[in-house]
Design goal:
alpha+beta; BirA Bifunctional Protein, domain 2; YbaK protein; Rossmann fold; 3 domains; 15 helices; 31 strands; about 30% helix; binds adenosine-5'-triphosphate; binds magnesium ion
């Protein structure tokens, strides 16, 4: 590509609307421009990278035996009504009517459409296992679209759906996808981790997310320093504490604590560390309110709590609601004498002599023991794991936490969609059988942003070669110098002829601007061609990755660039 003929509107300053590095750099490098909240135009530079990701994904999906299809973005409501998701999906589903008043949505995902297709086309076990994928725009009316295309409303996804006759076969299809995903993220040059993920409303079956590790990630990822256990914080299991302290002999006492409401205030009042206190939280589900107990220094994991209570519409109660239901203010709530069902976090199972609210405004209880002072409640894993917690899987390692960007998600769906949509095939015995389904998503556009989060410096993007919009940038200092321009054009042509993708900066711009833009755009290899170099018989080849540079004699330049780029591409 010749820069003089390309729409590549770079910006000198960080745009004020961008908070994270990838968003800033994508705007500054002229890769994207916003059209509306969470909706973006992809400009030539951005699109080149997006296509690179797409191609890597496509290659690996094909290799894994999946078949590419393309389904409509616009989907009739009837299909969503069949599975019940027309009601369940909520406000993220963009719904609209056609001129005949019929309901439609813009697809946020395609389980219904693909299952409708295959229930008509797949009739026999002989056609299974089958896996279909597409690379296509999705729309989700996200509450908080942000970080540019990282969390857009319209975004590009690769979604795949597998159909298998039985569980063993589904497990196999899932493993195939798992491996394909590892290859994809490796090929994209990303540092990533596969983690166990919550299966949410569908429940039960396996699910893994693939996270690109980056500070700006919206997810927290727990992993063990000794075994290979890794899970999203939403799901990471806390181990049961081993020590079983003997119950304290200290009597339970009620103490006036007029100013102490928060855990910090209570700990300070009693001069204890927060782990000696117990906090009581009120939540509700469709089945009514519950009291949850956590150690003072622990955080509630709402997903675990909601899964455990198995109720719909789980929510934490507001202070006014708590007061209305219990007659007690939030800061003095406690389990002794509570009239609600109580569920305590596992870490409290062996606790004794703890401090908690007295269920009376302005009072706390000290020296509280299970059984002696209140009935032992039900225990469940309700909390977020913390750094240094012992690993629930191996027992010997400890957990660390990292930030991650979710770029992929694989999920065993079971028969949720095939059953509700009445998809069957004839099995070996000639009987109708409901196949099991898996679904596999990759955030194709999100990968572009995630790659930048991991590969940049103060001056701009440093592309891994597999995603680089250009392998080599030829920086022509002054296009009016004929000899230099000729050499630049010649190298440009040779690179193209050898199958590489060069960018030639042949603009009439100041040299400083060209260098700045080259850093911003981030082609891994750069060659600087000017009159002086030609006179001296050598030009400078630079690496965007480590900043190194070397002089190369004129007639060896093209060959060196080709070899270097091809070497990088082959690793
Ligand atoms: P998230 O928790 O980030 O909202 P999700 O669990 O809703 O993701 P899936 O339904 O599993 O996402 O979609 C598959 C993939 O699509 C995700 O792993 C992610 O990479 C990508 N993705 C999901 N929502 C968005 C979005 N709003 N913008 C860009 N990519 C997205
Ligand atoms: Mg989402």
């Amino acid at each position: 590509m010749r820069l003089s003929k390309t729409l590549l509107p770079t910006l000198k300053e960080d745009p004020v609307e961008a908070q994270i590095v990838s968003h800033k750099l994508m705007l500054r490098a002229g890769m994207i421009r916003q059209l509306g909240a969470g909706i973006y135009n992809w400009l030539p530079l951005g699109l080149r990278v997006l296509r690179k990701v797409e191609n890597i994904v496509r290659q690996e999906m094909d290799k894994a035996g999946a078949q590419e299809v393309l389904m409509p973005a616009v989907q009739p409501a009837e299909l969503w009504q069949e599975t019940g998701r027309w009601e369940q999906y909520g406000v993220e589903l963009l719904r609209f009517k056609d001129r005949g008043g019929r309901d439609f949505c813009f697809g946020p995902t395609h389980e219904e459409v693909i299952t409708d297709l295959v229930r008509n086309e797949l009739r026999s076990y002989k056609q299974l296992p089958a896996n279909f994928y597409q690379i296509q725009s999705k729309f989700r009316d996200e509450v908080r679209p942000r970080f540019g295309i990282m969390r857009g409303r319209e975004f590009l996804m690769k979604d795949a759906y597998s159909y298998d006759l039985d569980q063993e076969s589904l497990d196999n299809s899932y493993d195939l996808m798992f491996k394909a995903y590892q290859n994809i993220f490796k090929s994209c040059g990303l540092s990533f981790r596969a983690v166990e993920a919550d299966t949410g409303a569908i429940g039960g079956s396996d699910s893994h997310e693939f996270h690109v590790l980056a500070e700006s990630g919206e997810d927290a990822i727990a992993s063990c320093n000794s075994c290979d256990y890794a899970a999203n914080l939403e799901k990471a299991e806390a181990g049961t504490p081993k020590a079983i302290p003997s119950p304290t002999k200290e009597q339970m006492q009620k103490i006036a604590t007029p100013e102490a409401k928060t855990i910090d205030e209570v700990s300070e009042f009693f001069t204890v560390t927060p782990d000696k206190t117990v906090k009581s939280l009120l939540v509700k589900t469709d089945e009514g309110p519950f009291m949850l107990l956590l150690r003072g220094d622990h955080e509630l994991n709402e997903i675990k709590a909601s899964n455990f209570l198995d109720g719909n519409n789980f929510s934490l109660l507001e202070p006014e609601e708590v007061k209305n239901i219990t007659g007690v203010s939030v800061g003095s709530l406690g389990p002794v004498g509570a009239k609600l069902p109580v569920i305590a976090d596992l870490s409290l199972a062996n606790n004794s002599g703890f401090i908690c609210g007295a269920n009376e405004d302005g009072y706390h209880l000290t020296g509280v023991n299970w059984e002696r002072d209140l009935p032992k409640p039900k225990f469940a894993d309700l909390r977020n794991v913390q750094v240094g917690d012992s690993c629930s899987r191996c027992g010997s390692g400890t957990l660390r936490l990292d930030r991650g960007i979710e770029v992929g998600h694989v999920f065993k769906l079971g028969d949720k969609y095939t059953k509700s949509m009445g998809m069957t095939v004839l099995n070996q015995l000639g009987r109708e059988q409901t196949p099991l389904m898996g679904c596999y998503g990759i955030g194709v556009s999100r990968i572009v942003a995630a790659a930048i989060e991991q590969n940049h410096d103060d001056n701009g993007i440093v592309w891994p070669i597999s995603l680089a919009p250009f392998h080599v940038e030829i920086l022509l200092i002054n296009p009016k110098e004929e000899a230099a321009a000729n050499l630049a054009n010649d190298i440009y042509k040779q690179l193209q002829d050898s199958g590489l993708e060069p960018l030639l900066d042949d603009r009439n711009e100041r040299i400083g601007v060209k260098f700045k833009d080259a850093d911003l755009i981030g082609a891994p290899i750069r060659v600087v061609i000017g009159g002086r170099g030609i006179k001296e018989g050598a030009v400078e080849v630079q690496s965007r990755v480590d900043g190194s540079s070397e002089k190369v004699v004129l007639d060896k330049v093209a060959e060196l660039l080709i070899n270097r780029a091809k070497n990088l591409l082959s690793v």
